[in-house]
Design goal:
Blueprint: E1 3-6, H1 18-32, E2 39-44, H2 45-54, E3 60-63, H3 69-87, E4 92-95, E5 110-112, H4 118-121, H5 128-144, E6 147-150, H6 153-167, E7 171-173, E8 195-199, H7 208-218, E9 225-229, H8 236-246, E10 252-255, H9 260-269, E11 272-275, H10 284-290, E12 296-299, H11 304-307, E13 313-315, H12 321-333, H13 343-348, H14 351-365
Parallel strand pairs: 1-2, 1-4, 2-3, 4-5, 5-6, 6-7, 8-9, 8-11, 9-10, 11-12, 12-13
Length: 366
């Protein structure tokens, strides 16, 4: 069996978030499963060196195309990939996202993993043109797919609700893999222990303003710093205004993307992890935290109770900073934090196990 994997969705600046983390973890799992020789990865020249360095065991086929990311990805998927599937004698094609181009026909079965449909729940993030473009892309890729992977039962339900006709009889749930292996730690100089950690982009639906407000409510009672790791987005302006009003700039640290070694250190030394998100198709970071034995507070939004197996410390409603502040206060006052057995998360989301599960899905489809 030869499985072609389309990596054309990956941006040269690697700002693909959880989708790129997922495919990296799958590759690591396929390597450990010793089936990587059955995979062929289509990749743009801009990111080839990065991935060849990370995964020298993989066989890559490079395409070259100038222009913006969307243009060159659509061009490759629509006109080149269908020919390459035949040329390289692939038996199946796996798309790690909903993006598949606008091909008319493929000679092999296609598996699509759309991850989520955020634009349906937050249309205000997108222009009317962009919403139409995304909807058209989803309908095409899901209609043409032979199998559609949902990363949670929550996502499976939303795909049925929004694209039931296109997904009919094709949907299965395979959770995203999580990499719990430890890399060498490297401290971030700006971080002061003890601290509360949250790893999230600062988009409005991530609801980070609620966390900032809750922290401000308890800041006089605790000596902790709040550390928020992730790229700044459309929710940052409101947060900056609030911090300036309250004079809290020195107690809260915002970082952009940091190295894996820094992430490892942050997880290892955090007193508490908090996720306030209003929308998650999966929600990898609370799983990573709980798999390291860190107390975790989570909202009950969308997929989060499902993927955290009802074992986190929950608060609701998600935008109530008073209730979140009480939960933070309650947990930090405990002499010994109550945390679930981290092995539950390590076993359920183990990258090698889930990579093997997906490999079996490919075999069964063929």
């Amino acid at each position: 069996m030869k499985i072609a994997v389309d990596l054309s969705f990956i941006r040269s600046d690697h700002t693909n978030g959880g989708t790129e983390s997922c495919i990296k973890n799958l590759i690591k799992g396929w390597i450990q499963q010793e089936v990587i020789h059955n995979f062929l990865f289509f990749i743009h020249e801009d990111i080839y060196k990065d991935y060849k360095k990370m995964f020298p065991e993989c066989r890559f086929v490079i395409y070259r195309c100038k222009g913006g990311h969307k243009l060159r990805t659509t061009w490759f998927q629509t006109f080149i990939l269908p020919r390459w599937v035949k040329k390289y004698k692939a038996d199946i094609i796996y798309y790690p996202t909903y993006v598949t181009g606008y091909y008319r026909h493929l000679s092999v079965p296609a598996v699509v993993n759309p991850h989520d449909i955020q634009f349906k729940f937050y249309p205000e993030y997108f222009s009317a043109y962009k919403r139409h473009y995304l909807d058209m892309g989803y309908r095409h890729s899901l209609k043409k797919a032979d199998l559609v992977i949902a990363i949670s039962d929550y996502v499976k339900g939303t795909l049925k609700a929004c694209y039931g006709k296109e997904c009919q009889g094709k949907l299965i749930t395979v959770y995203d893999p999580v990499d719990f292996s430890h890399v060498q730690e490297e401290a971030l100089e700006q971080v002061q222990e003890p601290y509360i950690l949250s790893i999230s982009s600062i988009l409005k639906h991530k609801n980070m303003l609620t966390l900032v407000k809750a922290f401000e409510r308890v800041s006089d009672e605790i000596g902790h710093q709040l550390v928020i790791v992730g790229c700044k987005g459309n929710g940052m302006e409101e947060i900056r205004a609030y911090l300036k009003e309250k004079g809290m700039e020195k107690r809260i640290l915002f970082t952009d993307y940091v190295k894996d070694s820094h992430i490892e250190w942050l997880y290892s030394h955090a007193a508490l992890y908090v996720t306030t998100s209003l929308y998650e198709g999966f929600g990898m970071t609370p799983i990573e935290a709980m798999g390291r034995g860190i107390p975790c507070i989570s909202s009950r939004s969308t997929s989060l109770p499902e993927v955290t197996m009802e074992l986190a410390e929950y608060y609701e409603p998600a935008e109530d900073d008073r209730i979140l502040a009480e939960k933070i206060r309650e947990i930090l006052k405990r002499t010994k934090p109550q945390v679930p057995d981290k092995r539950l998360f390590i076993e359920k989301y183990d990258k090698t196990r889930i990579a093997g599960q997906l490999y079996q899905v490919f075999e069964e489809l063929l």
